Amino acid sequence: MKKILTLSMLLVATTLFAQEEEKSALSVSGSVDAYYQTYLTAPDNEGATFGTAFAGKSGFALGMANLIVSYEGEKVGAVLDLVTGPRGAGATFNTDIVDGIVNQAYVYWNVSEGTTLTFGRWNTFLGYEVIAPAGNFNYSCSYLFSSGPFSHMGLKADFTLGDDFSLMLAVTNPWDTNDVSFTGEYALGAQLGYSGQFLNLYYDSGKHGGLGFEIDYTGGFDLTDSFYLGINAAYNDNDGSGFYGAALYPQIATSDDFSIGLRGEYFVLHGGPVEPSALGLTLTGSYTVENLIIKPEIRLDSLTDATGGLYGTFINNDGVPSDSLAAFTLAAIYSF
């Protein structure tokens, strides 16, 4: 009887342990953010805007809420990322800011220790910044990020080539055509990584609103224990026109709870009769209280050959077109 009882208890314990392991493979995470924004050099009620992605409202505004549910098995897994709010709508090109929107939804298979196949919709590999504000130091977004794709729908393969090298190859629908390819055309993507530095390539035909060809470098360096320098540079061409630019992201941690960082960006639209350009300077503080991040931010953009705005509307306090625009933003981001 003792042996039977001991075996029964062992079986129950083993079953509970296995169930616990299985439960631990399922995880839930996400974030919620909101902000207040006022223009320092233009009236808030005249429609002034930088025109870059997201955070384009004055007064109090909602960013987005996202919920990420993922399951990680021994060999296979799946991720579902749902977003709602204006930022989520802008990221998925959906005008409905109330209903849940699919930001990412993909399955993956770890074919071997160094090879993973991913099938579905996943956020872009191009650029330094990302859709979720919790993943960015600056709250507002750059011109480079705003000009490229946000997501891709297709198949990609990730290869680990050693301790420092990685390679990604992808076949997707054309730029931000996230559901289907109506034209029968497809895009190609590639990423070569080395010790946190990434060289990214993307190509589609450029037709039907496509992006064309883009080469992008994203990386950064820890110059000291408290000083980090992020770097992004890109060149895009679509039948003789497109954009190019570069951005630096120096960030200094002054304590465990507070950091301050600057985004300095130079951006040009090329290929037209004039080539408008923008110089953007964004100074952001980041104060962390448990899972809450509070970000005060001052942004100043100046333009050349783009009176009234590059992507947005630049005006002064008199409501007339201007070649510069400044704003103060206070954002709060909670991650879980």
Could you characterize what this model shows?
- It contains 3 helices and 16 strands.
- With 336 residues, the protein is mostly beta strands.
- It has helices at residues 2-24, 86-92, 143-147, and strands at residues 26-39, 59-72, 76-84, 101-112, 115-123, 151-160, 165-172, 187-194, 197-203, 213-222, 227-238, 241-253, 258-270, 277-289, 292-304, 324-335.
- Keywords: Signal.
Query: What does the main sheet amount to?
Result: 16 strands, antiparallel, barrel
CATH superfamily: Porin
User: Could you state the oligomeric state of the chains shown?
Assistant: single chain
Helix-strand sequence: HEEEHEEHEEEEEEEEEEE
- How many separate helices? 3
Share in helix: 10-25%
Q: How many domains, in number, for the residues?
A: 1
Distance between the termini: 49 Å
Which term fits the overall shape?
globular
Mean pLDDT: 90
- Provide the CATH architecture: Beta Barrel
Q: Numbering strands along the chain, what is their spatial order in the largest sheet? A: 1-2-3-4-5-6-7-8-9-10-11-12-13-14-15-16
- β-strand number: 16
According to CATH, the fold-level topology is Porin
- Regions with pLDDT < 50 over 5+ consecutive residues? 1-23
* Gyration radius, in Å: 23 Å
CATH top-level class: Mainly Beta
- The secondary-structure class comes to mainly beta
Give the strand content.
over 45%
